[in-house]
User: Fold this.
Amino acid sequence: DNATSETILLPADAAGLTRAAEVLGAGGLIAFPTETVYGLGADARQSDAVAGIYAAKGRPSFNPLIVHVADLAAAEALVTFTPRARQLAQAFWPGALTLVLPLRAGAGVSSLVTAGLSTLAVRVPAHPIAQCLLRAFGGPVAAPSANPSGRISPTTAAHVLTGLGGRIAGVVDGGPCGVGVESTILDLTGKPVLLRAGGIPAEALEAAIGASLDRSSETGAITAPGMMASHYAPRGTMRLNATAARPGEILLGFGEVQGDLSLSRAGDLREAAANLFDCLHRLDAMAATAIAVAPVPAHGLGAAINDRLSRAAAPRD
Ligand code: TXA
Ligand code: MG
Assistant:
């Protein structure tokens, strides 16, 4: 297997980020904070390094990775932008939006990153530590969420260590992620298709482009290659849209539905997104075997929250 002896916890200061950039350059794996979730980074140009991501996560090799760069200019070197893509990038980057665009010939990205597709998913993260790391490294960083495949995404360095400790070289500790759900993925290779609901609500994208998106992914009809039915799974079973716990269940509340713990007592979707994965990690740490979850409204960030909850509740294998 891919076990390394020890995973170093790196401070998010100049020395820690210099060290992290060196490890990336040497083909190692470094987890780092973004505003959405922690990513598991590797140099996107080094196939051995990218192969290490799949091995560390136990990720199926047909599931392509998102490449992170520091700015739009760096993204333009990797993919071909249409005017609409550039408009969205200017409006939402840096931020929680991933664009799927045609890969440029000579981009230099390993074919393991795209799983052989002719398109590439790119994102410019807003987190200041991610920005500093990308600038210190100076190249494209492939980074899926830093969790074992199929399990709960990490929003703290401790979550990363719980899932991948001993399997990766290091994790930069940047504290909890502010957004808490992954980026919104938009395919712009044809008419705009929402591939994954995420940190930028679809309504905001539609307002920016003045047109509606194909949102059939919300019903499961179309999705990104890696959007498995079961994903984000805590160890316990999950029952959704619960207004009270049944015997033996632990209730995860929202708003007026008071739980043993709550996504947001105020019923605030931003707060709920930021708390979502930490609550699921805490339920795992409590060894919860049966989890009930209060209803969460479907609008705005609620779309991403409900998407993650329904995958966390889906039958496994
Ligand atoms: O917020 C995020 O997006 C985080 C942080 C670390 O940036 N990353 C993340 O990566 O969520 P990951 O690997 O957990 O999810 C990436 C998704 C997968 O569902 C994958 O199938 C899809 O992006 N994807 C990657 N490349 C694609 C492509 N060329 N076409 C369509 N979907 C793609
Ligand atoms: Mg993921």
The chain has a mean pLDDT of 95. Residues 34, 36-37, 39, 63-66, 98, 100, 114, 117, 119-121, 123, 143-145, 182-183, 185, 195, 224-227 surround threonylcarbamoyladenylate (ligand 1) (CB under 6 Å). DSSP finds ten helices and 14 strands in the chain.
